[in-house]
Amino acid sequence: MSSIGEQFGVKSRRKMLRADVPGRANQTIRMWTLTSKPDSTIERLEKGYLDALSSVDLAENIGKQLHADTRYTDQGRQDQYRDHILHQAVPVFHQGRCAISRAKQELDRMRARLQLPKADPADAAGGIAKMEIRTWLRGLPQVERDKITRAENLDPQVRAAIIEGQRSL
């Protein structure tokens, strides 16, 4: 059965732990709201995120079970808990970090392929026309400027003037 959040596309919770624990800070975390396609980078990141939360929940449950178990001394409980964390939780967190690292590498490769169009240095008339467009845009009130620049069918000359103007900043 899905939770209320999952019905609205949210697969997370607001805090790292399910419930607040006295003496332990319960960090606020960001909700997962991205939708992913099968076998995509976003899906791998989502899996790492959800697996990490599940691992935290499992560690919390193991800790409660060990606390209630009278077979162990305090040191024995700590050793059992540490052993669980090292063998169950740490590999999950490592897989999540690897997914993040691969996503960053993919993003860097995509950024390297993305290049803005180059202005023709021999086209002085085109450069002056683009400069005039930028001057005209600067002279408009912000509301008008936003309406023009955010339009779906932005004039290609205006778009080129804005892009080339950004490079000089």
Overview of the structural elements:
The chain is mostly helical and 169 residues long. It has two domains: 4-113, no CATH class; 124-167, no CATH class. 64% of the residues lie in helices and 0% in strands. The chain has helices at 4-7, 41-68, 74-113, 124-139, 142-149, 156-167. Helix 2 (41-68) runs antiparallel to helix 3 (74-113) and helix 4 packs across helix 6. The longest helix has 40 residues, at 74-113. It starts with a helix and ends with a helix. The model has no long low-confidence stretch (mean pLDDT 87).
Task: State the assembly state of the protein chains.
Answer: single chain
Q: What class do helices, strands and sheet pairing give?
A: mainly alpha
Helical percent range? 55-70%
Strand content: under 5%
Low-confidence stretches: none
C-alpha Rg (nearest Å):
27 Å
Number of domains: 2
Q: What count of helical segments does DSSP give?
A: 6
Distance between the termini: 53 Å
Biggest β-sheet description = none
- Total number of beta strands: 0
Outline type: elongated
